[in-house]
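Problem 12. The chain below contains 539 residues. Write out its predicted structure in token notation.
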Amino acid sequence: MNPWNTIDANLFVGLNPWVWTQLESAEPPGPFPFLGGVAPEVVRSLHQVHEIMMSGIETAISDIMAKRTSLDDPQTSRLLEDAYAEVVASRPGLQQHIQCGRKPDGTFHWNYPKNPSASDAMTYGGLRIFNAVAHQAIPFGFDRPIGPKVGHFLGFLTGRHTMGEIQTVAQASGRDLESQLLRLFTLLQDHDCLAVSAQSTLEHHWRQVTGDQDVVHIGHAALMYRHREHFVWFDPWLMPWFAESPVPSLWSNLLPRPSAIFLTHDHDDHVDPRTLYHVPKDIPIIVPSRRNRTTFHYDYLSLLRELGFTQVKEMAHGESWRVGEVEIVSVPFYGEDPCDVELPRNCYLIVDRGRNVLVHADSGPTNDGRSALQNQVMKKLVAKYGPIQLVFASQQQLKEVRSYAAYACLSHPGQWLDVGENGFLTNGYLSELCQTAQAKQFVSYATGGADWYPDHLSFMFSARNPARTALLTAHWDPPEALMQDLEPFGCRYHPGQALDVFQPGSQGETTIRHLFDQLAPVTLFQLDHESPSFLRNTP
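Solution.
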């Protein structure tokens, strides 16, 4: 029997929320996949020197901790530079890409070639299907580069399309590709990965529970804004069930179809290929623009095209995107950049019929003090669009020794023991930000906000481990103390949790409802499916 015909053509088919796929590269990835502005082979050389130097760097850090020297000792920086030059001089391959050495005047010369058209783009050679309930990881190799086509097909396995529609999509791809998609579909079916139902009411449920101009916190930095019948997603880093913790989670096929997706910046918790690979690929996806780069950029276009997206739009600062009456404006993103690499990044301002919402994400002051405040960005936004009633921002206060930062090898070796900000948003900064915005409600987010997220990352806080949270935040401004700083100018404070819904109130106020009962992952799944047996058997 033709496998396409094993499921009734009128039934709705999607992946179970505890099933996901993950792409695997066709070749070993470089140190920084999709980094643009420098050739991959140059990055590999820079990264190699950094790796060779790390044991010496850690010895220097140990000496500082042992109080044998201090961070302020200029000799330490000079020793680092000379050791770096020695490594490069000893390896001819490195000398092809890195020029460095001590000048007669005592200063240290360090340079490497830049290339604005180069990037470390990747091609995927296959994927792996994960079934968390069955504890299975099933490989599926590509016989040619078909990752985008597979991503297009997966975008239909959301539970909103019938078997007949899914079959039509596969057959329209051509005979050769159809055979590959049929092989993938058969694997999914044989390993109990598919959720089949007679109805698809999820979209209707979301429209019943939420209202026009609502903002739904869907976990960590992921937000969903509703404009009339449209939903817009920001930074969706979503979790399949049991992928990171033993609780059901809010996965992509439990959400309404977005009219657009906005990405703020290049970090993995904001640009998540696993999430994006499972959403429909005809959705416009808006990303920071290369026009705002200084030297480097993140190659969103190559990544998203490899995932299968067909409508990728770069949005430079000051530009906007509209759907209906809502305008979403690209706003400069500062900071979270310990090594001053200055990749283009965006915050976003939602402007909707007199109600303004700022998606500030992890933006904050840079190492040299630039910010949305110092550079008058907030003041100009308010002058143009009016008060920004609702502000979403991180409260992280992270600093990092540069040598341990992701892009350390792209920064001057003499600065590797310097401490850089990695998202340093003090209560004073956030209070001034909200006062300048004339905000009525501040929401602290982008630090988890749900038990289904991993709890081992430095910016994630979970109720499961309060002692760890106390360790991480021991020397921070107390996050809850921001409440008192905001009160004098009439701004309220709220620590965001997944499935909080922020609704417009009178006089620019915001009403906050926690709708876990109506929007819990299990509740959403059971709208159209029976309760899975492993939940029914749980005592």
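Discussion. DSSP finds 16 helices and 28 strands in the chain. Students who got a different answer should revisit the alignment rule from Section 12.3.
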